[in-house]
Amino acid sequence: MEQATFAGGCFWCMVHPFDQWPGVLKVVSGYTGGHSVNPTYEDVCAGHTGHYEAVNITFDPAQITYAQLLDIYWQQIDPTDSGGQFYDRGPSYKPAIFYHSPEQKRLAEQSRDALDASGRFNRPVAVEILPAGPFYPAEDYHQNFYRTHEAHYQQYRRGSGRDIFLAKHWGMPSNH
Fold first, then answer.
1. Residues near 132 by Cβ (< 8 Å), separated by ≥ 6?
2. Pairing mode, if any, of strands 128-131 and 96-99?
3. What is the per-residue pLDDT across 40-84, written as a single tens digit (0 to 9) for each?
């Protein structure tokens, strides 16, 4: 089993796109990239910890590759927005790929560079590629939020502008 860690704005919106794939064993919402131990949601949102909201994915590389996970990741975010994602602004909502090995770093850089060169966006790709560090699971009520609070989740996704952006740039339906 391997790990993949992606920040793409609100972690509620980053779980479902991954957990529906064969070979993805677990997707955990949490915090990474910061300087404090065991941060809370309130600490992270206040901007005092340096953490990103992120998802940590446990996957079986025999069933789904890291490159495939990267393809899924890009199609969940605005890769040109380094100031947050959609409605959510600020450092804790910035997009980033946290690599767990030199091979993941190489694949992430290759994937980013290919997307940047594709001409799909009229601004450069601004997603950071950073070494993975400690990952702290978010509070229980944040886990699998799209299942446990379906109406709230759907309302949030629509209101955030994420679905409109994904439909425009990736042709994605709005039921993620």
1. 3, 5, 32, 98, 99, 100
2. parallel
3. 999 998 988 999 999 999 999 999 999 999 999 999 999 999 999
The residue type found at 106 is R
pLDDT in tens, 142-153: 999 998 899 999
Which amino acid, 34? G
The alpha-carbon radius of gyration of the chain (Å, integer) is 15
DSSP state of 122: S
Tokens 């793409």 found at: 8
Q: For residue 110, give the 3-state DSSP assignment.
A: helix
- List the catalytic residues: 10
Helices marked H in the chain: 12-19, 41-46, 66-74, 102-117, 145-148, 150-160, 162-170
- Angle, vertex CA 111, rays to CA 165 and CA 160, nearest 5: 20
In contact, 112 and 82? CB cutoff 8 Å: no
CA 153 from centroid of its chain's CA atoms? 16
Chain length of the chain: 176
Reading phi first (left if > 0) and then psi (alpha if -120 to 50, else beta), residue 9 is in left
Collapse the DSSP code of 132 into the 3-class scheme (helix H, G, I; strand E, B; otherwise coil) and give the result: coil
Integer Cα distance of 22 and 59 in angstroms: 9
**Antiparallel, parallel or unpaired: β 135-137 and 24-32:** antiparallel
